[in-house]
Amino acid sequence: MARVPSVIGGFLQLQVSAQNSLQCIELGSPAWFEWLEDECNRSFSFKDGTVSYTARRERQRNGWYWYAYRKQSGKLRKVYLGKSPELSAERLLQVATRLVESKEEQVSPVPDEHHEPVGRTIEHDTEFLMAHLTPLLGREKELQTLCALLRRPSVRLLTLAGMGGIGKTRLAIQLVSRLREEYPDGAYFIPLSTITDGVQVILAIADVLGLRDVGAEPFLEYLARSLEKKRLLLLLDNFEQVITAAPLLVELLARCPYLKVVVTSRMVLRVRGEYEFLVQALAVPTDEQLHDIEHVLTYGAVALFVQRARAVKVDFALTPENLPAVVAICRRLEGVPLALELAAARCKLLSPQALLARLSGHHRIPHGTTDAILPYQQTLHLLSRPAQDLPERQQTLRNTLDWSYNLLTEREQRLFRLLSLFAGGGSLEMIEQVYRAIDATTSILDDITSLVDKSLLYLIEQDDFEPRFSMLEIVREYGLERLHETGEIAVTQRMFAYYWLDFTLSAEAHMTDEQLHWLNRLKMEHKNIRAALLWFASQKDWEHALQMATALTWFWWAKGYLGEGRRVLEWLLSSCEQVTPHTRAKALLAAGTLSGLQGEYRHAETLCLEALSFFVSHGDRRDHANALWMLGHMSIMKSDYPRAQAYLHEAHGLFEELHHIWGVASTLERLASLERDRGDYGRARELAEQSVALFQQLSAPWGLARAFWILGLILFSLGDFAFASVQLEHCLKQAQLVGDRNTLIFAQALSGCIQMFQGEVQAGEERVRMGKQTAREVGNKRGIVWTVTILGLGAVLQGDYQRARELFEESLSVLAQLSFEYKIFTALGLRGLAMVIASQGHALWAARLAGAAASIQQTIGAPVTPPMVEAVIERFLLQARLQVGEETFLQAYAEGCAMQPAQALIANDAQLRQPAVSTPKEAVAHTALTTREIEVLRLLALGLTSPQIAEKLVISVLTVNTHVRSIYSKLGVSSRSAATRYAIEHKLFKLS
């Protein structure tokens, strides 16, 4: 069905094809009025935030007119819109407001063409309010808030504050326009941009009101006497440069009880009775909202960019191809309206993709390092546009910022320049410490307050930390330009960088005893630390750059920045010259640790062994133990259990000698993993519980997350799903508290796997997919293997063997990138693929795959598949045996035992010669039953009635019947006898 035309975000959206292709027409454009005049077009819907109505075209005595309809309180309300040429964006919004705010049903009459204005003026018959040629976009919520605020009797002076170019004037004019009918004596716009003397403000007001004949009376007295009984609304624009006139404004308001004043200013007035409203940037969509063009256009930043781009390029349209670039531009410019307008003007020559590339031009770091280090970006030179109808200060963004900067005192300017170094903002204490290194004699508290008041700095409240002060990125870039111009850049950047070096070294020193606090602080200061690290590198101060990067290893690991950390460390190691051997060895271990956590075991082992050699020869016992721990972990992943045991036992001894409880607990957790892989689940559980106890003693949430995870895996391997789920929930809670995305991957995957085997396949799959997405974001290949393999098992449980095959092949392709060194999952992946290949009738290929997996299992010397998974796989392989016969199957199986994984994956020569035979879904149906459903099925097969089953299991009859229906559905049966026969055939109970 064709959709109703809708006005959303300043555009009329039309469906132009059955495939839901949309055409967007800008409000106020010739195409908009042409559409309105077309008699075929009789209605459209209007939507703006929470406001909506239906517009219909109706014939009246004097021609065609538009009316707005909205159902309210059970009644259909109707309000006059006007003739087609009158339907501007402002008119549509005005009517929307009337429909929402008015309480009584009302039908406005068709006015005469020469109707009189609603308001009265003092000496004029016209009101001085600027008309705009384009609609105001993305401000409806602010307008509603401001309207409600200004209607309050106590609000007499309202200041709209914000940085230059944020849209204060445009918003204020729309506000006054919307309320003008509520002020019978008029609403007036008083521009102050050309006035520099505060005394002239009163003269400017009087001039606009037409009050010029003063005589000998003081002007303020004359103005107050003239306005004392008038119900007026005044809009004073650009008040920041005449801020000294604020007391005169207060006096005028005190003398005129019915007068209200709206002020736009880059700084608040700080006078009695002032109500402040900070005008923020326009909203920008998030990553999750990029799939829907219609939804993205409801965001003010995108709508404004598209509107202004069409002004210079009439065929500009938002498409699936340019949508990500347009949204990225809006994010880069942080939704600042003036910046968006100036950038959109460049669309006349540049595509959004090309414009984004220029706005985000990176200073590239050698050796291919990408955005891991904060880029140096130049934006201001692009954001300029010769526009004769704009004030000079707004023709470029730099002019706008110059205007604000020149209003600052010399001390404020100096502080502003320093603050531009803070890439991610900073607390007052941090800013004071950096500033004190440059000038220890000056207090900055008043100056910071002034910068906040002047909208160049924003205060961000935080729950667990002290408030932070931050700049918009465009403002910060301007400050950096000024810092370069003054010649202060060298000394200030040096002080800034050394502050953050000390900060990261302190964080590393406290990572085992105040872990959560420091991990969160490092997360908060990530951008600042990046900027400092880049500065050390740019100065070729490799020693301090490597020290700083090495100190961040815990943070990169715990927070899931594995790729960033590894790229930075490897770039620094390949670039550095003349660093101390100890610093280099620690950096090698850090790079090896992050590589190993990503699954790159061969490369990681090389780095860690080189580092270990240094630590042993120089007697550095703590880093010696750390290197042994990492080598032990990688040996487990490669299923080299004897070597893993040797490394971990030595590490455990060193940590105990050093009384390093964190190291002891971490080593116990790895030893538990080792014993689980070997199949000694009892010993594994004992070690894991010891690890949990030690981490609880330390109150270390990150360590607890990993210890709970391995305990949950051990319990899963034992078949204790209930207790395993409890441990995994503990793990998820601790990992989320820390922000440990790596542990979240595996906890989500295993929790989802348990849900699948308990019959909640879809819910389990969703949880595993969450883990897979996190693994991709982090770059954890082992996590990708885990999640994709488990999703393959889920597809088998649902009987979707083709999707299962694709998933197992995807898992094995990632394992191939890791040279099949992750042996446990290589074997599991091969067996999983063998299972689904068998289900598709390719028995010989399945046998070879199973043989290759068996060869790996024999090499490992330990089980690779949990019992409940093994039972499912064996059932499919039994079908393959029956299909080709035992002797033929065993011959192919023996061939597979002699193959490497890569060979077995292509050993499908028999595939084309075999008929495809599907294994019945019932072969695995009962594995989808929950534990409770299996209990009910057993009692059902023994002949118990529903009430008897309810009594035996202490549940209600209704619950029993619900379980029975679920059992029938999962087994594909429709009667008690069929369910009983299934239970007997699959030996789900023993007949006594």
UniProtKB/TrEMBL annotation:
SUPFAM superfamilies, sorted: C-terminal effector domain of the bipartite response regulators, P-loop containing nucleoside triphosphate hydrolases, TPR-like
MF (Gene Ontology): ADP binding; DNA binding
Domain HTH luxR-type: 922-987
Pfam family for this entry, one: GerE
GO BP of this protein: regulation of DNA-templated transcription
PANTHER family noted in UniProt: HTH-TYPE TRANSCRIPTIONAL REGULATOR RV0890C-RELATED (PTHR47691:SF3), REGULATOR-RELATED (PTHR47691)
The protein's name: Putative ATPase
Organism name: Thermosporothrix hazakensis
